[in-house]
Design goal:
This protein has 420 residues and is of the alpha+beta class. It is 37% helix and 21% strand. It is elongated.
Length: 420
């Protein structure tokens, strides 16, 4: 026998038995995006590698360790997208969005790829939803993108299980002042820092704050807070965001260790974490990136966005024991010996065309086996037809919930099914 080919490590098959849960989350997301007037954008699954090295950062783990990159037949270095913000910004610039309108509120949904260690809720091919609001420097849009995600959580019934952590990393002036104070604070304990934090000390000391190393975490516990070094403009921006969130009823928690290390990030940084997911509890991360459009070759255009893993949301739904009913078949057609298959299929199609979900047996099984199949598919009704019923143009319609059965003309079945 030929060897069975297995799926690639870190990937998942989304099976028919669970796809309804995905559809539920997707529908909630789509409805919410429409309510907030965000427009969907779809970009290629692979891009030039330099887009991510410039747009994500060459020193990040994503670019240095986790990307799926290869050289195509034309000699171009190609990468399966590890995130989508860079792709959306590339499309924004290339398609000259600024000539259409001054502000664009965009959203995306799709698979992304990172070669990291697979763990619960985190895979090498994972699905993500996200938004990018490009064009406004004002704090109102910061509050809106945060509110949008919170609204999705509310609709899914998950908002009580999450914490919105938020911080400001200010503007360039604020960060320089904070970096100086941070380096002065860390210098006496430099030798105790992890090797990677020692590397970051000169180039990017902010990233030491979000180190996962326990010793680093202890060292930075009392480190200077960036909010204490915000310029007047940055402090005002941040306070408006917080005041607006309060007005919108979105609870938040100040997290002084929440930072973004790359230079194109500014002002608001935020993260939603779930109390039900254990150590890997982040379900959404976002922030303002006013310098990224310029860094990728566009104008000096401000922007803010977030990304959220769909698998994480599904895990939360599972933990919350939310019951999502699988789709059911309205009518399963049970054809007995003596019926003409073409005629049965014509009836089935007529009913489908009138807006009900109908299936039938294609294995020429016994009536008992067909009834079992109807139950397996959670059919609401079975329509039983033999030779006599066919001549009279009727079926025996049985309600599988109540057990009631009656003889109905073919033309009356749809109406009966729709009112029950």
């Amino acid at each position: 026998m030929a060897q069975i080919i297995q799926k690639i490590k870190g990937t998942n098959d989304i099976l028919p038995s669970e796809i309804h849960r995905w559809h539920h989350v997707e529908e909630v997301i789509r409805q919410t995006m429409e309510e907030f007037n965000y427009k969907e954008i779809r970009t290629p699954i692979f891009e030039r590698t330099e887009l991510f090295s410039r747009g994500v950062g060459e020193t990040t783990d994503i670019v240095s360790k986790e990307m799926y990159s290869f050289t195509d037949m034309g000699g171009t270095s190609i990468t399966l997208r590890p995130e989508l913000t860079a792709s959306v910004v590339r499309s924004f610039i290339q398609n000259q969005f600024t000539q259409i309108a001054p502000l664009h509120k965009l959203w995306y949904f799709g698979p992304q790829f990172r070669q990291e260690r697979p763990q619960k809720g985190r895979y090498r091919q994972f699905w993500q939803v996200g938004v990018e609001a490009i064009g406004s420097p004002n704090p109102e849009i910061d509050a809106e993108v945060i509110m949008l995600y919170y609204r999705i959580l509310e609709k899914l019934g998950l908002h009580k299980d999450v914490i919105l952590k938020i911080n400001s990393i200010g503007d360039a002036e604020s960060r320089e002042a904070h970096k100086s104070a941070l380096k002065e604070f860390l210098a006496p304990r430099f030798e105790e820092l992890s090797a990677i934090s020692q590397e970051r000390f000169e180039k990017n000391p902010l990233r030491i704050l979000d180190s996962k190393n326990p010793i680093d975490q202890e060292i930075v516990r009392d480190a200077p807070h960036i909010v204490d070094y915000l310029s007047p403009a940055s402090a005002e921006h941040y306070q408006i965001v917080l005041n607006t969130l309060d007005a919108l009823g979105v609870p938040w928690e100040q997290d002084h260790k929440l930072v973004r290390g790359l230079d194109y990030y500014t002002h608001t940084a935020f993260e939603f974490t779930a109390s039900t997911l254990g150590a890997q509890n982040a379900i959404c991360g976002g922030g303002r990136y006013d310098k990224l459009v310029h860094q990728l070759g566009g104008g000096d255009i401000p922007a803010i966005g977030w990304g959220s893993g769909i698998e994480r949301l599904l895990l939360m739904l599972e933990e919350s024991e939310t019951q999502l009913e699988a789709p059911v078949v309205d009518v399963f057609f049970v054809a007995l010996p003596g019926t003409d298959a073409a005629s049965v299929m014509k009836i089935v199609m007529d009913w489908r065309n009138q807006g009900i979900k109908v299936d039938m047996d294609y294995l020429r099984r016994s009536m008992k086996a067909q009834m079992r199949e109807a139950n397996r598919q959670n059919a609401r009704f079975v329509a039983i037809m033999g030779g006599d019923e066919m001549e009279k143009r009727v079926v025996q319609l049985k309600n599988l919930s109540s057990g009631e059965q009656e003889e109905l003309a073919w033309s009356d079945v749809v109406g009966k099914v729709k009112i029950n």
